[in-house]
Amino acid sequence: MRQPWRVAIVGGGITGLAAAVRLRDRAPAGTEITVYEQSGALGGKLRTGELAGQPVEFGAESFLMRDPAGGESAAVALARRLGLTDEIVHPTVGQAALAVGGGLRPIPGGTLVGVPGDLAKVTTVAQPAADADRDTGRPLLAPGADVSVGALVRSRLGDQVVDRLVDPMLGGVYAGRADDLSLVTTMPALAHAARTEHTLVGAVRAAQAAAPRAPGAPVFGTLAGGLSRLVEAAATASGATIRRDAAVRELTPTATGWRLTVGPTRDPESVEADAVLLAVPARPAARLLAGIAPEAAATVGALDYASVALVTLALPEPELPALSGFLVPATEGLLIKASTFFTTKWGHLARPDGLALVRASVGRYGEEASLQVTDADLVAAVHRELSTVLAAPLPAPVASHVQRWGGALPQYTPGHLDRVAAARAALRGAHPTLALAGAGYDGVGIPVCVRSGATAAEEIITALGGSAA
Questions:
Q1: Which end of the chain is more exposed for a tag (fewer CB within 10 A), N or C?
Q2: In this structure, are residues 24 and 294 in contact, taking their beta carbons and an 8 Å threshold?
Q3: What's the sign of the alpha-carbon dihedral 100, 106, 111, 113?
């Protein structure tokens, strides 16, 4: 009779918790799942707080409803598994703007992360290079190749399209620059189309056609009451033992599995496990791998991250445009790179007293010095820049909150997925009961992290002898 397994999950973000749920669903009855979280809180970048008596996200705000193939996203599937689908709500205002040339201009439709499928639609914001996107008789991207998003788009459509459209769109998600970020990792659908299409506009249209969206179907969703509900429900459904304030400092292979050294150096605890799933950022994962898989550790540990701060203001009856928010190109010279009008975008958050919650994102990769100021200074700078962009002085906030996320957003340079695949292959060959999962490897966004955790859980199930399901 098969013995129950002991599986250790290092990292209590949504990746680790999604892995725990999958293990609970698929592993033999009685399997012991333990989640080790070095901080006191689960959820990682999913963190719902409160400001001015109202729930508000201090981290991730929403999730995509569809996956790249057009089906429901892994986040929606997880919500369904947890009985939360009736709690999913959608934006009531979807139009966002770009802060360009001292004013707000609506983001043009028909783009794929800012890359246009119809050049005529983007001329209100940027002038594409004339006749640059010519059919040369060969695909844009060779088999197995990867390039930066900026390099491809600049060569086909010119600088303005990158600087005013693509860069702010990518910056809003990754806090990085289009000229540095991998096309294959950040825009996989476009990269796939570029391997057969001869023009960039054609590749955008092909990517959009490959995953058509029904008219009126929502793109984004969140949970009424906040995304921390997803975290709490996943932790409960997993049946895992949750160890908070439990840093895993060392991994050691044993004859039957793994030994984890947990806790402070002055009072360490040794724990035995049959398998380990690392659902932590790349650098802490690399530290744990250094003694057992040095080459994989070096590959994983080379990934760099950007730091950001999210500044939320509670404003009494401000005059805000009917927009979900706006993005700011780096060329505009502002500290803010994006802003969301929460109580406008999300109708379920609107308040009868007119108090508005407005959040701004601050910090771009390579500009960490801009965050080296006090919370009060960040709040003042955001309030000032919001007033400037909106061309109207905003009322003084009645409350504010600054959430700093140090080393939060991975910066995927070209070739990232190949490097991760090589590291995973090396680990799988030498240590099949050790798996990597999370944004540092597979991409950002709640659905990607959920899928990454579930996939790693399946790898461990296979390595331990298959599923009981």
A1: N
A2: no
A3: positive
Distance CA(347)–CA(93), nearest Å, equals 8
d(C-alpha 9, C-alpha 104), whole Å:
45
Backbone angles phi, psi at 131, to 5 degrees: 60, 20
Characterize the bridge pairing of strands 88-89 and 220-223: antiparallel
Report phi then psi at 341, rounded to 5. Answer: -90, 85
- Bridge partners of 97, per DSSP, are 106, 326
Residues 84-124 have pLDDT tens digits of 999 999 999 989 999 998 899 999 988 999 999 999 999 99
Rounded to whole angstroms, the Cα distance separating 137 from 160 reads 25
466, pLDDT greater than 80: no
The two beta strands, 88-89 and 63-64, are unpaired
Residues sharing a CB contact under 8 Å with residue 109, sequence separation 6 or more, in sequence order: 121
- 274-299 tens-digit pLDDT: 999 999 999 999 999 999 999 999 99
Give the span between the Cα atoms of 65 and 84, in whole angstroms.
Answer: 14
Type and span of the H or E element at 362: strand 355-362
Burial status of residue 220 (CB atoms within 10 A of its CB: 0-12, 13-18, 19 or more): middle
CA-CA distances (angstroms) from residue 219 to 107, 174, 198, 212?
15, 19, 28, 12
